[in-house]
Structure formats: C-alpha cells, structure tokens
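Practice problem 4.
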C-alpha cells in the first residue's frame, strides 16, 4: 500500500507530536495508531507500521538509560525474554483476527487507553519492598508483552505502573527497566508483523525520524516547563482522532449504532 507524500507528511507531523508527548507522559501510540487508521491504513498494517516507528524510539531511550548504568540485566534478562515471547504471541493473534472485528475493537481499545491515562495515579520515586517475586514478574511481563504485540498504546505505562506498584521499584529505575521490557516486546511484535508483510516501510521510517525528533523536543520542554500540559494534550488528541474513526460510514460500530437508531 502506497500513501501519497502529503499523507506521509501529515503522519510525520502526528509522529512528531506523539514523540514529544510520549517523552513527557507516555502513550504516543494513542496519536499515531488512530492517525494511521484515519489515513486509510488497514488495522493490522497500522499497528505494524506504528510498531516500526515506536521500536526506534524505545531503542533510543533504552540505550540512554543503559549508558547511565540503570539497567539490572541480571534480574531483568528473563523478564525481557518473557515480554518478547508474550509479544510474539500477541502479534501472531493480531494477524489471525478478522479485519472487521479489529476495526470495531480498536476504537474501543483507544477509548479504554484514554480512560487509563485520565485516571492513572501518580507514581513515587522511592524504592519499596517488592510485594511479589520473580515468577509474578515473569507473568506480568508476558501478559503486558502480549498486549503490546496485539495493540500497543500504553504498554510503557503498564510496565512502569506494575514495576512501581507490585515490585517496589522507584520511578526512575522502573522507567529504565520499562524501556528494556518494552524494547523486547516491540522487537518481537515487529519481527512477527514484518514476517507477515504488514509493515509500510517508507511511512514507518519517515514517522520514526519524526518521532525521534519529537522526543528530543519533548524531553527539553519537560525539563524546562514541566509535564503538566502533556497528558491533557494526549487525551484530547486521542479523543479527536478516535471520534474521526467512529465517524467513518463503514466503521462497524458506527454501522451498528445507525442500525439501532434507525
């Protein structure tokens, strides 16, 4: 599927904004996936192409934390493997789901992610005693990884929340290890979707460049002005793009609503 240059330019703009917001508050996929869908990209290809650009951004963040020595490879190598395997399973399931069902499901998942970001609690930076052991960590990594392979937005926040709330990590260390787990899940999902031929290479790479640039701007703005504005912007953008998807005449949810009303 080839997209027109002007559409790719608009998607790059969306990826730039998503990268900036993602660097501050997370959840950039809430902008890029509905933007791809609104551009007419089929659901599986939209998730696959978003996976390409998000993998690049996650890899950059992971290497930044790794250079600072914040990654405990000994403790998190096995959880990263489980995240990888879970994501591979999720991506495989994605390729087997009926496109019509997926078109109806994705707006609902996006709305659920908006609700999560609206009410997610703030996390502290102090290490605490872990409530659970390694087996639980492996299970959580596999489950969240599976979600990432199937859909994706919010994965980083899910990992971070779990590491802080369930496993006693401070926020900075949790974010650092989230990048390792998220990179593993991104790579697995990308490999499976690449093997199925679902990735739009030119669009995905263009969005990746824009996303990385946006991430640099977002990090700079967060350090200078704080992160208070990022989450409301993320929520408003995601809601607007989701409303655009639901307004399409051939959207299964919109068709069902018209059937009930009419």
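Answer key:
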């Amino acid at each position: 599927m080839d997209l027109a240059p002007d559409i790719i330019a608009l998607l790059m703009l969306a990826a730039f904004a998503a990268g900036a917001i993602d660097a501050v508050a997370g959840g950039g996929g809430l902008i890029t996936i509905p933007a791809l869908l609104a551009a007419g990209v089929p659901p599986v290809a939209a998730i696959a192409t978003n996976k390409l650009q998000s993998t690049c951004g996650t890899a950059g963040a992971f290497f930044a934390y790794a250079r600072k020595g914040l990654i405990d490879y000994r403790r998190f190598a096995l959880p990263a493997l489980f995240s990888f395997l879970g994501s591979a399973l999720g991506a495989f399931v994605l390729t087997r789901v009926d496109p019509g069902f997926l078109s109806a499901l994705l707006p609902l998942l996006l709305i659920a992610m908006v609700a999560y970001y609206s009410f997610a609690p703030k996390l502290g930076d102090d290490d605490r005693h872990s409530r659970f052991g390694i087996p639980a960590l492996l299970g959580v990594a596999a489950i969240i990884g599976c979600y990432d392979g199937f859909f994706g937005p919010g994965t980083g926040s899910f990992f971070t929340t779990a590491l802080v709330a369930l496993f006693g990590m401070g926020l900075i260390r949790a974010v650092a290890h989230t990048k390792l787990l998220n990179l593993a899940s991104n790579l697995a999902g990308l490999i499976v979707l690449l093997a199925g031929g679902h990735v739009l290479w030119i669009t995905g790479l263009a969005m990746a460049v824009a996303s990385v640039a946006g991430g640099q701007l977002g990090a700079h703005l967060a350090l200078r002005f704080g992160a208070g504005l990022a989450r409301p912007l993320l929520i408003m953008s995601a809601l607007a793009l989701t409303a655009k998807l639901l307004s399409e005449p051939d959207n299964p949810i919109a068709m069902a609503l018209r059937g009930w009303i009419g």
